Amino acid sequence: MPARAVTPHDVLSRGQGAVLDAPPVRKLGRLVHPMAWWAWAIGAAVAVSLVTNPLLVLLVVTTVWIVVLERRTAAPWARSAGVYLWLALVVIGLRMFFQVVMGVNRSGQVLFTLPNLQLPGWAAGIRLGGEVTLDALLFTLYDSLRLAGILLCVGAANSLANPRRALRAVPPALYQLSVALVVALSVAPQLVESIQRVRRARRLRGGRSTGWRAVREVVAPVLEDAIDRSLQLAAGMESRGYGRTHSGQPVGRGTTVALLGSLVLVTLGTFLLLGVPNSSPWSWLALGCGGVLAWLGIRVSGRRLAVTRYRPDPWQRPEWTLCAAAVVAVISSAVLVRLSPQMVLPSPSPPSWPGLDVRVLPLLLAVAAPLFCTPRPPAGEL
Fold this sequence. Notes:
Blueprint: H1 8-13, H2 34-49, H3 54-71, H4 81-102, E1 110-117, E2 128-133, H5 134-160, H6 163-168, H7 175-204, H8 212-239, H9 253-275, H10 280-302, H11 317-339, H12 341-344, H13 361-367, H14 370-373
Antiparallel strand pairs: 1-2
Helix pairs in contact: 2-5, 2-11, 3-5, 4-5, 7-8, 9-10, 11-13
């Protein structure tokens, strides 16, 4: 027989000391540190940027998207995942359109021919129309898929990481930069929430406009609402003393010189590493010295700020696992490029079907690591 529901009369009849049998309380999960989500997403984006195999890119992006669907919360920024998906499709469509209309590469098997348009002399070098080849379309498709994959990885970080919680983990010396980053990162999620709220309000008022007229009626209030809410967040942080110094004195000259010197050394080291052959020792020396100077400058300037930490987010095993997964994803992608460039960097000329083998499994498992090492977020968590 099914158990009879307990009524208030039963409670009163049993006396004040009676203890009713209650169902066990389900232990809720916790939110993963936002910086760990960003580290995982950046690792996945770097891994995608190193390959052009469309099958591998699609597998990595699909895995990232499964993680987003399984680990996102009900917060407004979590609803921006679909927007990034549409944006990635728009990027692919635009790249393909410009390749067809005014692409430079015209070698390979001709699919069809567009009428040529004569341009004035000042537009020399630009060609509109002409032959459209299969090799050029495949090359553009591979490259645009890689760009779309990087964009979707960044969108995954925006959907999973709470920007306000990430702000609390920023070093104190970077408070001004962090305020700007929070405003910038919160515009897109707030834009999605504003679109839903404005459309709901229009339906309640009986709005029946469709097409371009509906777009014009929605765009202005949506942009105004999203930007206003982001600015309110920044103003609220400023009014609560975020970034206030102990003494009110500016940063010392030595700290400023250290920060500028670190920026110059990091830029020089990156240029030597990427643009000058046989300069690895000097490039790594410049990068190392720049990193040390940056750490010293940030640490010294951060001591001036009266920053307190209220309920800091824990950094435990799931966070370390996400960072390790990001490193493994990047290393796996780099190893694949070195060991099997034909597989991960297929040539569109001549056209051939790209292939995969079991060596891509470490990369996919590293990207899918959050499904196994991170807890599910609490229901209704904002």
